Amino acid sequence: MSDNTGENYPGDGMSLPPFPNPSPDWSQDDPSHPGFVVIGLNDTPGQKAYYIHMEAKPGKEELLLAFLQDIHDGIDKEPLTGPWFALRYSKTTFGIFEAFPNSQARHDHDNGPGGQNFFTRPELLHDLLAYPAQLHRLDILHGKFGVMLGQPVKPA
Fold first, then answer.
1. pTM, rounded to two decimals
2. Region labeled Disordered — which residues (predicted)?
3. What CA–CA distance (Å, rounded) separates 33 from 122?
4. Each residue of 48-73: pLDDT tens digit?
5. Residue 75, φ and ψ in degrees, nearest 5
6. What's the CA gap between 134 and 51, in Å, rounded?
7. Which CATH number fits domain 48-142: 3.30.70.100, 3.30.70.640, 3.90.550.10, 2.120.10.80?
């Protein structure tokens, strides 16, 4: 488990934008990594996760579903990434939740086949998404790890 508590967590608690970003648009796109906006702290101790929020342009939902499958195919080759979920909230609203044992594993994912399917395709993101994907860096505080979708998880 992560050892972060409110008392020793870095930052002032006011410097990060609200979650999720209440009014995203393409003006927030960052030229250093086009197609997505990174929100949250990096390299804090403990277990890590990403929540990536994506809003498809109308009519691009099926293409975004295929893009998520491409990412999933890469994730299967990353031994320290997981659990990993592609999510759908509404017809056009999608997400990814993925967890890592630590910051190094999250960095390895960023450079691995799953992460590269996302991070190196800014033209596709711009074509599919109504606004830049919102990539939230998270710390895992607590979790239930013995069951996955109602089934017991067997140790590797």
1. 0.82
2. 1-34
3. 8
4. 999 999 999 999 999 999 999 999 99
5. -60, -35
6. 8
7. 3.30.70.100
